[in-house]
From TrEMBL:
Family, similarity comment: Belongs to the FdhD family.
GO BP term (any one): Mo-molybdopterin cofactor biosynthetic process
Taxonomic classification: Bacteria, Bacillati, Actinomycetota, Actinomycetes, Kitasatosporales
Name of the protein described by the UniProt record: Sulfur carrier protein FdhD
InterPro entries: Cytidine_deaminase-like, FdhD
Function: Required for formate dehydrogenase (FDH) activity. Acts as a sulfur carrier protein that transfers sulfur from IscS to the molybdenum cofactor prior to its insertion into FDH.
PANTHER family: FORMATE DEHYDROGENASE (PTHR30592), SULFUR CARRIER PROTEIN FDHD (PTHR30592:SF1)
Subcellular location: Cytoplasm
Catalytic machinery residues: C115 (cysteine persulfide intermediate)
UniProtKB keywords: Cytoplasm, Molybdenum cofactor biosynthesis
Amino acid sequence: MGRVTERRKVLRIRDGAVSTRPDTLVAEEPLEIRLNGKPLAITMRTPGDDFALAAGFLVSEGVLATAYDLQNIVYCAGATVDGSNTYNVVDVRTAPDVALPDFTLERNVYTSSSCGLCGKASLDAVRTTARFPIADTPPVRVTPGLLASLPERLRAAQRVFDRTGGLHAAALFTEDGELLDIREDVGRHNAVDKLVGRALQNGGLPLSRTVLLVSGRASFELAQKAVMAGIPVLAAVSAPSSLAVDLAAETGLTLVGFLRGSSMNVYAGEDRIALQDAAAQG
């Protein structure tokens, strides 16, 4: 099975001084996801939590919603010509009554670690019907102060980032700020899929009383993954895209961007931000 980090020799230049030394890099390898034996997608990822990554990906695709939908996930033996196992191909087996996606849908099955789910035939194909409507969940209220504290806590929990400086992270918090889980990956989308996949495997969906924090931008795909998992609040340390804001407004998702220090922008779902509580504390 692939390692999370790898070592490479580098030429280091510091203030005119030149030296050679080994450097620790984040590992990046392809993962092919098969669904009931049929190739579905390929993503570049950091090895580890591969089964959770595959399960979370299928939650965002609308295939899986509960642990009962998932029969099992296995690495595919004989993934190479010589029959060896590369641990870079997984096959997800669903329960017999699970409806499968349309394999004839025109799409590019390659997804890069930076672009998320690419090659959909149209925007409508991406707007998968959510199994857990956010608007129907009990109200969640979070203060700006609580949100402001989360990036530092995410950063403190990034173990591999400290050694490589090259990983994105996604973390799940309770509405009271308790850290539930954190995953790192070379791709933001993969990190979120690993979080959601682990929740599905543990019978934890929908994540209706949680806050999802991502270390970079909030793209349409990340907003979609939050909606599909029933997460009511998505916060990002950087900017959201216009489509992410549109999707948040349509589905009732609270979307926070530019979460830095005590500053933040709320782009949708501001009713979940306890502004009166924050003013009273001030």
